Amino acid sequence: MREFNMIIDGKAVSAVRGLEVVNPASGRPFAVVPAASEADVDRAVAAARAAFPGWSGTVAAERQRLILALADALEANMPELMELVTRETGKPLGGLNGVGAGMEVGGAIAWTRVTAALELPVEVIQDNDEARVEVHRKPLGVVGSITPWNWPLMIAIWHVMPALRAGNTVVIKPSELTPTATLRFVELANAILPPGVLNIVTGERDIGAAMAAHPGIDKIVFTGSTPTGRKIMQSAAGNLKRLTLELGGNDAGIVLPDVDPKAVAPRLFAVGFHNNGQTCACLKRLYVHDSLYDEVVSELARIAREAVVGDGMMSDTQLGPVQNKAQLRYVHELVEDARARGARILSGGEMPTGDGYFYPPTIIADAIDGMRVVDEEQFGPVLPVIRYTDLDDVIARANDNDNGLGGSVWSSDIDHATRIGMRLECGTLWVNEHGAVQPDAPFGGVKQSGIGVEFGRYGLEEYTSIQTVKVMKR
Which key words tag this protein in UniProt (predicted)? Predict the structure, then answer.
């Protein structure tokens, strides 16, 4: 079993107690990581604070050079990182439509390079005979990053790289369920960065809570559930930490009656089941017009039955296991509730026997608003399909949810679909697509799906404070 260490102030740090990391494809541990104490958090924060003056004072071009070196390190170690991602998350190396560990590590490299190139220019508000007024962006200090288990390495990169680019130092805590790829990345990074610039602590929820409340951390960036995000927000009030919270999503997609069911079904399946449905911005509620409902659900069920589910290390696997046993039980609970309330399970819907946390891709027909599987975020390989007839009514139903991360409209008339989609209450609208994010376009939610945005210039600015400088000329 492979053993990992934390990295604090550039040095490997162990702990008295270890945490086993389970491979969800087998249900058995494959690695051990340290169980940090609150004292370890204190040491990591102290190291980051000590490193902040030097790092923030480094010229932007040098920080960019070092961040590009981190991208090179990720690329040079891509096979090892892919294997760690697959073993800890269960996702295939390749996966459905190429959405697997290879995409995760490749995406981490791409995001690193794009983020390195971002600029924070001084904005001139006034420059006349009387005065010059400038707006400067300055780093906040120490950023605390808390990451989830579904895209552990890529989301770590989403948090860490803009923080470093803006001149902050970082303490990161990965999910205790999927810490290994992030630990390895931080180890590689500390061969490039000055000591204390990037530190990692591993542990259970108490360590994340200690970071959220820590007076030495100036900002928390968190990706995860809405209930946990609320707790972080409460804890962060102690020193008025800045926050970026990317929280739960229960994304709706609306299929208009002018599409070809056979052509659109594979695309709908792909965006509903990539990463086994374990993505905040997956398609999670599918509203289909009555005129083509039966044909769409029939095609989706056929695709689901033909999907290859198995160990992510096997080359032909399209969908791996659910990442953990608790999530597997929750997913099945939602399916059983829908079955009991009259929904038809067209594919899947059965808890398999044997090793691992596998669940077959499940298409639920005759789902209705009010069923748990529709109203709650499934975060697993399940897609409820809901029938509609009236366009205004379906928009209201899609919006009648506490979440507002993403949404999509599917149509052969792009302009019409865009007008319809703009009425959805969500942070990102996709037309004939769902869940596709990119490093130069802002991404974030409304309502209970979070605060702030990530990616591109807008995301980078979230890691800074504004300083207005007014220089009088007379």
Answer: Oxidoreductase
Instruction: Copy the structure tokens of residue 81.
Output: 């990182």
The radius of gyration of the chain's CA atoms, rounded to the nearest angstrom, is: 23
Sign (positive or negative) of CA dihedral 342, 344, 348, 352: positive
Pairing of strands 382-388, 198-200: unpaired
Closest listed residue to residue 343, CA positions, set 301, 302, 305: 301
Residue 405 pLDDT greater than 90, yes or no: yes
Give all strands (DSSP E) within 257-343, no chain letters. Answer: 283-289
Interval 3-17 mean pLDDT = 97
Which residues are catalytic, by number?
246
d(CA 166, CA 183): 22
Half-sphere exposure of 237 (CA within 13 A, CB side): 6
What proportion of the chain, given as a percentage, has pLDDT over 90? 99
- Strand 344-347, strand 242-246: pairing: unpaired
Please give the Cα distance from 183 to 198 (Å, whole number): 11
Angle at 68 between CA 62 and CA 71, to 5 degrees: 150
Which of 350, 281, 274 is closest to 319 using CA atoms? 274
Which domains are present in the chain? Answer: 2-247+449-472 (3.40.605.10), 251-438 (3.40.309.10)
The DSSP secondary structure of 212-269, one letter per residue, reads HH-TT--EEEEES-HHHHHHHHHHHGGGT-EEEEE----EEEEE-TTS-HHHHHHHHH
**Mean pLDDT throughout 307-322?**
97
3 state DSSP class of 144 = strand
Predicted confidence (pLDDT) per residue in 85-142, tens digit = 999 999 999 999 999 999 999 999 999 999 999 999 999 999 999 999 999 999 999 9
**Three-state SS string across 46-70, please?**
HHHHHHHHHHHCCCHHHHHHHHHHH
What pLDDT does residue 352 have?
87
